[in-house]
Batch of 2 targets.
Target 1
Amino acid sequence: MAEPKENLQMEKIVSLCKRRGFVFQSSEIYGGINGFWDYGPLGAELKRNVKELWWNAMTRQREDVAGLEATIIMSPKIWEASGHVATFSDPMVDCKTCKGRFRADQTDEIPCPQKPSKCVNQCHGEKTEARAFNLMFQTYVGPTATAADIAYLRPETAQAIFAQFKNVLETSRQKVPFGIAQVGKAFRNEVTPRNFTFRSREFEQMELEFFIKPDEVIEAISGSVASVPETGHPGEPQPNWGWQAWHQYWVEERVRFYEGIGLSRETLGFHHQTPKELAHYARACTDILFKFPFSKKDAQGNVTGDELEGIAARSDFDLSQHQRYSGKPQHVFDDELRSAWNKLPKEKQDDLWRRYYENRKNYLTRSGVEADAAAKQATEDANGLAKGNYVPHVIEPSAGVDRLILALIANAYSEVVKTDDKGKSETTFVMKFHPRVAPIKVGVLPLLKNKPELVAKAIAVRDLLRPWMNVYYDDGGSIGKRYARQDEAGTPFCVTIDFDTLGEKPELLDTVTIRYRDDGKQERLKISELLAYLLSKIR
Amino acid sequence: MAEPKENLQMEKIVSLCKRRGFVFQSSEIYGGINGFWDYGPLGAELKRNVKELWWNAMTRQREDVAGLEATIIMSPKIWEASGHVATFSDPMVDCKTCKGRFRADQTDEIPCPQKPSKCVNQCHGEKTEARAFNLMFQTYVGPTATAADIAYLRPETAQAIFAQFKNVLETSRQKVPFGIAQVGKAFRNEVTPRNFTFRSREFEQMELEFFIKPDEVIEAISGSVASVPETGHPGEPQPNWGWQAWHQYWVEERVRFYEGIGLSRETLGFHHQTPKELAHYARACTDILFKFPFSKKDAQGNVTGDELEGIAARSDFDLSQHQRYSGKPQHVFDDELRSAWNKLPKEKQDDLWRRYYENRKNYLTRSGVEADAAAKQATEDANGLAKGNYVPHVIEPSAGVDRLILALIANAYSEVVKTDDKGKSETTFVMKFHPRVAPIKVGVLPLLKNKPELVAKAIAVRDLLRPWMNVYYDDGGSIGKRYARQDEAGTPFCVTIDFDTLGEKPELLDTVTIRYRDDGKQERLKISELLAYLLSKIR
């Protein structure tokens, strides 16, 4: 199905992004480069705030998550282990007439790249058979550029976390269950980047890999795996949680995060991947969607939304793959398991052993290990339980930063129609960002530019606030114009220093007018209370 | 000269980086990948703190700098304009005997890559003529992988700033002089990565491009260019500053930044590039050096240090190049210049016109434009002055994040020899990070793990501090061991909750022991005063 050509709401958003310095086309003065976008001054602040809030919520505010910052270029063996070298590809066809190359499932919707004017939307030439086109960007490391020097730009940040799992475990004093968090760039050579920054070739991810005990281990230690209600937040983590409780916990934690930065539940959607959609090793995956202006309607006419984040229960696939490909053991030793195991009745041991064995054997055979070898390895793995050893399972909340920024911009965008005395109406817009993510937290405005006392006081207020938040000092133009400027930037508060601040009305000495972006209301506040008030709103 | 094989101090630093989770080798379980390093939990926090402090100091705490976050892959035309495609290369030779490829100036010091055991340090085979090897990593964007699809991983973040100069200018309400700041990854396919993280193939930069008026424009507006003392900080920026004052200002601002995060002036060195070292377009470049353990001695036996940051006065080269290559005007319009120009005596106009003309012509001819065309273009450019138009000059403070992290680690590393009652001595180490950059700001320790009242109180203290700083809660092992653990992590403060906190001595109710990392001294502090005290130290 062709993308709608006209989407007024998106056009407005793209236009304001450029005009107000949220997003620019990369390399614009050279005609741009398809699928790459830069963040201008306001966009860079917005993005920094979002990444900082995520990092804070995921690592610093928790006991059970450690951070990591790994390289974009890693050993190519990592992408063999992860399966990306073999299968991270789109089927492509070449056109024998126009020589263009198309995604096999999109020949009808993509303009012919060789002669865009001639055969927009449909190239009628005969097509070759589809061939796999790997979406990883490839380069060479070192001076010789031989096949042995091939490396890839990471197509996701997750694999670095798996590859460093043991190093983090050994240096951070964490024990399973615990997580490793990372924020960073990733790259996919998308055949057809689209929807502004939503699907781009260079993007940023915020990924948590949360390592948990396999259900058999929980059962050995706690007697049984906790059952949790099917919906809603399951509460504070418990020792007897299995993968389902942890999966649900992270879905709900992530929704709380989105709510906490201004995306209410009504703006979100959920997609629970069906068994057919799931990767063979995955047990569940819940996508958190946002209803973008370009999101399509389902058969019932409802907008379901497009993916902001996927929360996947990935079993022990990832660490197991790295164990097989690197030859380095990736299991953990769990003292609790070892002592619990020895106290279990033989029947229970046998039951857990069998189930663990089956899971391991399934993984191994599905990963291409021959039946005999798989059975032998699975036996060894299951025998490890008695020694307290297992390969952790993982729950992966994986969010796209750029998509979230676009969602926040789309969500914040509001138009206001103002009609003046003469009945002439004008449409302006206000960016209603949550104060936590707003690029600028407060505008500080002296009523007049040419009154040194006002300016000096305004600068004192600016300097009071600036160590704690991003302040925009503005003395240019009428107060109304300056408010409008901050409304467009999404600044939630403006503080005006006027003659009352200087004591023209003695009872108002050292007070300021604070003006609220969303309703335009104004209040009087003491300067001595300003910092604490603003901090309570923006944090 | 060969790198010293043995450097005990560096060995200790590399070892602690791995052991305490500051830095890991990228892809270590796969044998690593040469020139790539990951930051573990403590390293990731340290790096985040440094980047955040830089961003804060350079953008949020200033009126005159806007932020940018551009892509790593940009239009390849940017690297033609910048000169990187043509000249960003090392001369390489191939060995006809061992088939290895060497940097032409390092054949004597690099192990033969093909037979490292056989000809370490010297390959005796006949070498080919030297050929240029471009240090940019190359890839293809889009599915066809033709020559037209070649793109590069940016070898520096600076060029994105120049390419987006006009967009930022038009959307940010900034006027020259102003700067654009960016933090981000860059990539150089170094032939011989070395000195741990100091010279790696993937690294991060913090770059400011600060755009200023050409001296001729200052002279037209202010009558003359301010003369500044040759050393020391020239103070708050003034309208009549020329490039020399701005250059000196930024050198001194950057030194203050380093001092503010614990690198005293004694640990730093300075290198003023000689006319021979300077790029043809550069007017000055001052390198700020740090005395690393691997830094070499000069002829007088003094350690001079290795580069942390270069502060270059780059004239109007960069914007001029992009103007020529993109065909998009990169000049600014300056109202002040236009009105000042018209009031100048004809003589003065002619003098300034001539000097501006000469500078422009020099730039053009040195950049390969033929004499006639250069003269014509320079005439047009100089005629622009009367209309208020000029291409801004730039001062570029460009810092390497990874080098700075390594400097902070080397600077913080201190050994302490403790001798116990039996005369047995043990060497431990303390990481004396400045509290502003320390990965963990405070350890919160209940005296005993098995006293619920102590634990509850300790958790209350943790939760009081955690929204404001990175807190490490630790209840494992003796207090001495826990202090030692935080000393190794570089945590400047530890807070212990003991029975006095609970009121065993009533006058000490709700007080805690605060223990200082650097001298081990302890004091008693009220919990109600703790947050404000710690904030005053870490900010």
Note: Chain B touches chain A through 83 residues (CB under 8 Å).
Target 2
Amino acid sequence: MAQATRERLGDLERLRALYPLVRRRTEELCAPLRVEDLVVQSMPDASPAKWHLAHTSWFFETFVLRPALAGYRLFHPAYPALFNSYYESAGERHPRPERGHLSRPTVAEVRAYRAHVDGGMLAMLAGEAARIDAQLAFTIELGLNHEEQHQELLLTDVKHLLGTQPLRPAYREAAVTARAPAATAPGGWASFDGGLVELGHAGAGFAFDNECPRHRRYLEPFELARYPVTCGEYLEFVADGGYARAELWLSDGWDARAAHGWSAPLHWFPVDGAWQLYTLDGPRPLALDEPVCHVSFYEADAYARWKGARLPREEEWEHAAEGEPLAGNLLESGRMHPAPAGPGGARLDQAFGDVWEWCASAYAPYPGFRPFPGGLGEYNGKWMSNRYVLRGGSCVTPARHLRASYRNFFGPEARWQFSGLRLARGSVEA
Amino acid sequence: MAQATRERLGDLERLRALYPLVRRRTEELCAPLRVEDLVVQSMPDASPAKWHLAHTSWFFETFVLRPALAGYRLFHPAYPALFNSYYESAGERHPRPERGHLSRPTVAEVRAYRAHVDGGMLAMLAGEAARIDAQLAFTIELGLNHEEQHQELLLTDVKHLLGTQPLRPAYREAAVTARAPAATAPGGWASFDGGLVELGHAGAGFAFDNECPRHRRYLEPFELARYPVTCGEYLEFVADGGYARAELWLSDGWDARAAHGWSAPLHWFPVDGAWQLYTLDGPRPLALDEPVCHVSFYEADAYARWKGARLPREEEWEHAAEGEPLAGNLLESGRMHPAPAGPGGARLDQAFGDVWEWCASAYAPYPGFRPFPGGLGEYNGKWMSNRYVLRGGSCVTPARHLRASYRNFFGPEARWQFSGLRLARGSVEA
Amino acid sequence: MAQATRERLGDLERLRALYPLVRRRTEELCAPLRVEDLVVQSMPDASPAKWHLAHTSWFFETFVLRPALAGYRLFHPAYPALFNSYYESAGERHPRPERGHLSRPTVAEVRAYRAHVDGGMLAMLAGEAARIDAQLAFTIELGLNHEEQHQELLLTDVKHLLGTQPLRPAYREAAVTARAPAATAPGGWASFDGGLVELGHAGAGFAFDNECPRHRRYLEPFELARYPVTCGEYLEFVADGGYARAELWLSDGWDARAAHGWSAPLHWFPVDGAWQLYTLDGPRPLALDEPVCHVSFYEADAYARWKGARLPREEEWEHAAEGEPLAGNLLESGRMHPAPAGPGGARLDQAFGDVWEWCASAYAPYPGFRPFPGGLGEYNGKWMSNRYVLRGGSCVTPARHLRASYRNFFGPEARWQFSGLRLARGSVEA
Amino acid sequence: MAQATRERLGDLERLRALYPLVRRRTEELCAPLRVEDLVVQSMPDASPAKWHLAHTSWFFETFVLRPALAGYRLFHPAYPALFNSYYESAGERHPRPERGHLSRPTVAEVRAYRAHVDGGMLAMLAGEAARIDAQLAFTIELGLNHEEQHQELLLTDVKHLLGTQPLRPAYREAAVTARAPAATAPGGWASFDGGLVELGHAGAGFAFDNECPRHRRYLEPFELARYPVTCGEYLEFVADGGYARAELWLSDGWDARAAHGWSAPLHWFPVDGAWQLYTLDGPRPLALDEPVCHVSFYEADAYARWKGARLPREEEWEHAAEGEPLAGNLLESGRMHPAPAGPGGARLDQAFGDVWEWCASAYAPYPGFRPFPGGLGEYNGKWMSNRYVLRGGSCVTPARHLRASYRNFFGPEARWQFSGLRLARGSVEA
């Protein structure tokens, strides 16, 4: 048996094992929710949990089963349009801001849809390996990565839904994880020499098109803060009038602040003069030693300016993080909230997990970028304007999903992700 | 025992019997719905069914139990603000367009809230009559009328929700009521002499403040169509380019038409070149002999102009309808859709029930109008601008709820009620 | 010579004399303005003065010269669309909110356009009488009335433009008219018996279609305040927190107040804690004895409710005013601002002139209303929704233009006209 | 005399000579305009020409005269707020979208304001050199560069005003410059090796803060088109359905296209099936050999994708252009429109002048960027989000004003500048 064939068979073996695990976790994340919570869309940027359940199935149906499974029968003729997110090449779609108007299909019907798609997928994966060529295997892998992205979105959308309604219910019964205070007083800088470095995905594993190709960049010497900015540090910015001092803000940020009435991160709310924090375990007092999160790019940028620093460029972040172990407070910890600093030791602490770290870099194609072929080319490439890069994953990112080269991206006003920041400074600025 | 006391006791007896009937019917109307259907708000004008369930309870809690039941305990401290509709005097309230963002309280919790309020109300009604003075008895009666209004709104909101989403599911399993074709070919005019007539509520029964006081109006001689305009008649207007001829429309109506993209009544939709109609029993072909409904004031007005007629003034309508029996295709028929004309015989057929009939009259206070005292003064009076009067009830109006003097009112763009029209003409215009 | 012919000749004689007078006055009203002032549109509801100059000419060109003057040559092929206000039947038109984007034609070119149209009109009027039939003579008369309406609009639009920009320049060098204090302390009520009265235009003179036909109404006995509400009286409402008390306002008014940030009439502005008033003669301190103006329908309505009264119905107003002499502080006084009460004596003082008086009546067709024939039918009829009637003219209404039956109408949020109010109460309410 | 002192005196000498030249040119650019054209604001992004005249004076008054000229008297106490563009640190300001509401000050008054400021400035420049330190001299130089930027904006704003109103008048009497056809058939690519290059301003001359500091970048090998894209080439994109093919567009661009109804560049308009072009000399047929302009970043990006290429990164552009002579079709040519290609010869033709060239690069700070000190720090730095860089100047950029390192920036939807594009490709993409 040729080496390539053995590799592909191994790959199929892996997908056969992985597929049910990933799919099951999406459903488990919905388990604590009431039917009511699965239906509501709390803002146009967010989607109902029910929609996530359906759309992730639509992805497999559209890009795997319909083109590649002989005899596949559509579960429902209206679903392709109902659950298409943004693929122009995949035909009509229901308007995004009206996803929450869909009381039907019901949650039970969506679960039946998932089961139907799973049936097709498992049949395909169990079938003759010859039917699954390398491209198709890649698309299945992409579908699983896609579903992992939606696991994170599902949790942040649910957090927005529950945390911005008056009753602010917890997502789940209080988690058992004890909350240890920070083991170290966060602080300090890690220095990097820069020079001509390499950036982008390399190697055999899965990566998105936007991480490729690996290419060179020249970096001036720079420093990154050893820890993400904490709530306590951010509170000083708030207390110093940070939200009322125009000179600290980008002009568009200053306007966004006024338009949305920002005076603190999302999910902070005052009770009797003290800040409370809404978490997926419900509201509780702000913990000063936890990384701040739910700030927009504009807030992160203003904080950095107030502090006499700046946000890292994504090439700085990636170069620095390549040396760190790919571990941290990720979805598997079950904590679902950023944690205080641990005992430290690494050059960069909490590089992975806890909070996505806003970068100074606009989201743009790498030199030599090629989108995925066909309709999947819309996955990443068409979003490459007006968005900023975030790096490092969060407390609700699946561990398997993350890499040092991973590029997340959101508009500069977005606050509902677990988005925080780490300061940077250059030898010039320092 | 004095006469007044006996009357009041009789009245209490009546309320004791009535209260559970009215309250139960609201819940029965929700029975065919899935939890998902109870949560969604399909447009800012509409409310989730769950919200109707809660708000009608809030009304009794706010205006009866809290002021008058000693020891009444609030079910939940946040509910007074969550379920206040528009009463400035009752304190804070959740923004109307965000009623659909509330996944909590759940449907089950709202049902518990209803039970809690019912407990208080039944205890009060079962208690010493002396505790319930005439004013309080009136407020309870008002609360029941209020709940009946919300029964109709609940059904029209649900119809909007289900009928404007892609799957267009039926509200219920197909009703058993057979659909008889029209017994008569609708047509003809009924003439009225006019003169100095009386208008407004008279007598002992319940009425809203906006129906009072009874007062005199002078009417020129006029004619009313014997039947409401049918779908078949309206279809001629559509086919004649009625939606594209500016000269038929009020200027604001012409603009509303363009802004909303109207080309037919709400709930009409084309399939293969033929009009389908969404009903609470699901979609089916348009029936030409049924009264047209789900038209705005502007469409009703344009149709009338196209026909060389006009809409009735509310005083004409009321004067004409006073002679008709208070009966028709109302909620109790179970049909939940306008019916073809019956055998006729009355001067005005289908005056009550089937469709609300848009009047030419802006909603305004009668001479000598006094709003209900206190906070309940906001019930009707503050809406007396920019709205038009509709008369006669619809196929989803509870029979008990209706009177010839009853004034319903909506903005001229509203289409989601069962709103149709009946033509009028004056001796001058004819 | 037959009587009818003699009458028509007399009528033509009158039009020949009148036409240049009316046209010249429009231009005279622009004389104090700089070119810059003639171009700017300060809000979508207002038009640049230059546009008024052109549009009034367009009216004669479109409805008189093009259909009836043989050989008439268009001044410019683009002007018919540029200066059409809202006549759908007259073809395309430039969007209203963009009237201020037109730097061209220049003011000088618009003046040449006026001269061109005047040439045609004077030639027609000087020509053979036989060419001008009764319908055409009526259209010319309508064109002059139309121009008089635009004289008032031109002044209120200019007042809005000048009074809402930071420098608040005066429209003209201070007028010479001395400002006498009120000769009487305004107050008191005039009583009317009501009964079956007649309403609407009667007689031979010009009237708009919306004033016709004369018809009967039944009025309950009522009282009208002898004087319009003064600034001093309105100031008490302001000082009593009138703009912060929801119970005084219609719901739509309460929302409009918040949306626009109203806390006093338009053109009031605070300086060092005292109210200043912008007038066409520039800013000066508020004079308490002058009628309040530049209030919306909602503010007028709220004031009346605060005072325990209400706004007059238009039929009450007209019935009461029919007995008053058609005289007052009108455009010809040159004051261009409401004046304090005179020596009184009439039952209603200041019924004509000073300020338009908001009525409680929605603008609606009279029984038997017929719009002007043809395209001119759009003049009044299509606006009969969502507007309220104002009566009595203002300090910038040409005297010739006014009648007791005259119906002005604006949306309930409009404040830039000289709109004030007079209180009413019924025998029931009193 | 020390070298530094001699240099500064030379610098002052230069400023003394330069100041009146720059100031006079702003006024000369207004000479062909009517008063009406100077007042109107045709969209929120644009300003009235009158405002440019005043604001450029405000800049000198605010940053030079008020802080540094003893005894300077404000021309008018309201002007500092009226003519502040966006400097939060300079106090209140009139809202940008309402600049066109200001009929006052008049044009004549604004000219007087200019003269007043010029008086102060000339007095200062003529005064003792000791009074003008290096920082102040720099601020004066900045004020002149600022005025040059507004000269270009004034012309593009005027072009938008005149070209988007129905009469489309020419800005000036037809220019005398003959229009020669292209001397070469544009085409071909210039190759660059890349490597570690330097980027940013170097040397002694004036530069904006955003061009600094000079720093290193690593470039992969790349190619730039020798010529900007022409109208003829762009027309092929239009004819190929470029505006209707989602796969060619960034997602935000696709939405912008739909929202604004784009189907061709700004200032193209169809007449009898052929494209006409509005130029500052008035409308004329599209010339296929001229560089295309008035396209947004999104259109430029879509065109490049359609062509299988991409936009240049700003570092590529600057590196390539550093070798080109700083000359071209700039404001001084008097053409005020892009010209066809000349005889060629340079590696990059038309690098400077003709059209600003959209880059793929989001506008961001260079490593080590420091904003100008004090209030002038708002000049460039706060705009560094959501904007894209354009390079190379246009046919209305003053020659003195331009450099290879010059970074212009606009939002990706902006089309009213003379913005075109030049294609790029990498060795990887080629």
Note: Chain A has ten helices and twelve strands.
